[in-house]
Amino acid sequence: MTMDRREFLKSTGMGLAGLIVLPETINHSEIASEDAYGILYDAKACIGCRECESACKGRRDIPTINEPELDADNWTIIKLYQEDNNQSVYSFIKRNCMHCIDPACVSACPVGAMQKTPEGPVIYDETICIGCRYCMAACPFDIPKYEWEEVFPRVQKCDMCADRIAEGKHPACVEACKIGALKFGRRSDMLAEAHERIESDPVNYVDKVYGENEVGGTSVLIISKVAHDKLGLPVLTSSSLPSLTWPWMKAVPGVAVVVATLMTFLYWITGRKLKVAVQEESINDSNQS
User: Fold this and answer.
1) Do 256 and 130 have their domain in common?
2) Residues 159, 265: one domain?
3) pLDDT at 257 (0 to 100)
4) What pLDDT is stored for residue 71 in this prediction?
5) What average pLDDT does the structure give for the chain?
6) Are residues 163 and 55 in the same domain?
């Protein structure tokens, strides 16, 4: 199948336009303010009852089956940490989406299927997702999961019950926690509460609020009596990942222009040589006849 010069330039231009739009899409996440909502999880207070797990699944009409790891059905899990040589030293830890203030998953999504809402939750729109799974690769907490066994798979993760928040309710997991290990409110208030708990009992808390500064801050904050890295929480810098990748991504349009120009030039050179060869062959045939 042949393609004339006009068709070639048209297809090249369409590809170029897509590349040029991409960085704008990536850099378009809406940063939540300190007035956005957040969740405080106190691992020292958690007793591992897993009522939060059941509430999360109940909200989505999924049977309650305790699973050891996050997956497409399990958006929040409670895990137990125990020291190998002293099992009296232990802690529960709740794992779910951290709802970063400047989310890497939102930055990586080329179509805007992942969005950070002004209220705090990071939500997912399955109707526009193209299944590229860049969000999964970008997340520093390894949170988004894929429905590998489904015919029409989706990316799945905790959405902080954005629908319930819109109705003035608390997230299902927070509402289900009766001992106060989970608390919901404005992030600034949750951060102040976290520091207050640590200062009131410095012997039994690690002097750090996980999520206060990690990757630019998260809407989920964690305090505990055990070092956070021992609980499986990654050690991360205070710089948001989008702020680190944006200088590289903004160079994409320039690179695309150079590539498109080079492709057009090569097409013209190849076409010119072919045209000359055809003309020479035609002249040789005329001379021989």
Assistant:
1) no
2) no
3) 52
4) 95
5) 83
6) yes
- Tell whether 81 is covered by a domain: yes
Position 286 in a domain: no
The answer to whether residue 34 sits within a structural domain is: yes
**pLDDT tens-place string over residues 160-196:** 999 999 999 999 999 999 999 999 999 999 999 999 9
Do 160 and 260 sit in the same domain of this protein? no
pTM, rounded to two decimals: 0.75
Q: By residue range, what is the domain housing residue 38?
A: 28-245
Instruction: Determine the Cα–Cα distance for residues 103 and 73; give it in Å rounded to an integer.
Output: 22
- Domain of residue 147, CATH code: 3.30.70.20
Q: Which two tokens stand for residue 146?
A: 């894929």
Q: Any idea which of 3-12, 73-82, 218-227 has the lowest mean pLDDT?
A: 3-12
Residues 93 and 38 in one domain: yes
Query: Which of the residue ranges 26-30, 45-49, 86-90, 190-194 would you say has the lowest mean pLDDT?
Result: 26-30
88 confidence band (pLDDT: 50, 70, 90): confident
Q: What is the 3-class SS of the chain, one letter each residue? A: CCCCHHHHHHHHHHHHHHHHHHHHHHCCCCCCCCCCEEEEEECCCCCCCCHHHHHHHHHCCCCCCCCCCCCCCCCCEEEEEEECCEEEEEEEEEECCCCECCCHHHHHCCCCCEEECCCCCEEECCCCCCCCCHHHHHCCCCCCEECCCCCCCCEECCCCCHHHHHCCCCCHHHHHCCCCCEEEEEHHHHHHHHHHHHHHCCCCCCCCCECCCHHHCECEEEECCCCCCCCCCCCCCCCCHHHHHHHHHCCHHHHHHHHHHHHHHHHHHHHHHHHHHHHHHHHHHHHHC
Residue 170 lies in a domain: yes
